[in-house]
Fold Aminopeptidase.
Amino acid sequence: MSDNSSARRAGSTRRAFLSTSAVAAAGIPLLADAGSAAASPLAGPRSDAGLRDMLKHVDPRRMEATVRRLVSFGTRHTASSQDDPVRGIGAATNWVYGQLQDIAATSRGAMTVQKQTFIQPVSSRIPVPTTITNVIATMTGAASPQRYYVVTGHLDSRVTDVLDFTSDAPGADDDASGVAVVLELARLFATRPRFPGTLVFATVAGEEQGLYGSAFMAQQMAASGADVQGMFSNDIVGASRAWDGTKPDPHTLRLFVEGIPTAATAAQISLMQSVGGENDGATHQLARFVSQAAPFELTGMNVRVIWRRDRYLRGSDHLSFQQHGYPAARFTEPRENFNHEHQNTQVVDGVQFGDLIDFVDFDYMARVAKVNGAALWSLATAPGTPKNLKIHTTPPGTLSGTNITTLSWDPGPEPDLVGYEVVLRETTAADWTSAVNVGNVTTVDLDIAKDNVQFGIRAVDSAGHRSPVAFPTTVA
Ligand SMILES: [Zn+2]
């Protein structure tokens, strides 16, 4: 706890007081009226030695072998053969299932693998009822098994006509690259000691026909009460070349994050409008966490966060998780070449079209795996995001019009949780700029002019791991 804050018991509530002078002493740069001078950079999460070691073992040659094997199935279209042993989505699904079973066998019982199969009814892109199968490897958490972090790539592929299930659809970039990331992460995580939170490595299917596999998976998780605190779709993460093929950008990975949460109710949107919370949905907090957990010096990749749900008029499997209110985001390569996506393999006027293996970059893909690996490791290791954070504008016993603001939240369940930090920033800043330790409390009174800044809370464990930030979702 900071020397400048104090905690005291008030009934059963653990309470701290954060004064303007305490904030000034912490060097918070945003509060000019507190007389502070020095800027205080936000302390980021520590990179564990185990994480650094794991990332050294990301193997681009193994990922290349995965992409080559997936391309060898000819097509992985959702309506292609379910039972041909060498060609089609069924053979590809069986191969992925076998790979993940082999990986789970190295996990000393921590990882289990399931085929999640359902019949998708007829829709505009599903001419007949069609079997769709996700393959899901789950590494159950030791301390907080109901807290989930999910990473996906989609197994299915397509060509120009989304209903053409017979032509070759190599799908090397879209999305064998994402599947290769998922399999590589599963392989590397499986042999590590169990994490506090549960990790899910999944290949989903039916994406090109309407996100059907991920929609079913997310719906099943929501129905079971799974507390998904982070989800990443890796979709088109294999190529570093620019649209014109001339300017490689091999060290940038885009992360698309929604602004107003997709599942927000009218009342929740009204509250965001009222308090200026438009840029503080849970998915934005997830992106801020990723930026800190996966820095360039650890991954060789710059994460370019984009405040947009996806590219214009496009989507991916993160949307399925957003539908249930889960924080979910999409990784994708820096600048797509649309001649290589959703195209028949053909040469037109000397230009090669098609999603061919020649256009993907396995070293780039390996760096994508490192970004995901760093994010998932840090999420599953750190305490969960604080729950039920409320901001009380007129705390009990105070008169209206006070500048005192009270934050309260539910205590986290983690046994190694040692306390909380209040994070702050200017309303116009993209990311949190300051953090103040307030100790192991569940209520803090802030003598800070709340109208001028944004507040959040994050949890800290005994090793210094910080959770993603919770932003107040209730004003009392
Ligand atoms: Zn895709």
Q: What stands out?
A: Residues 233 and 458 are 24 Å apart (CA to CA). The pocket of zinc ion is lined by residues 154, 174-175, 207, 235-236, 316 (CB under 6 Å). Confidence is low (pLDDT under 50) at residues 1-12, 30-40.
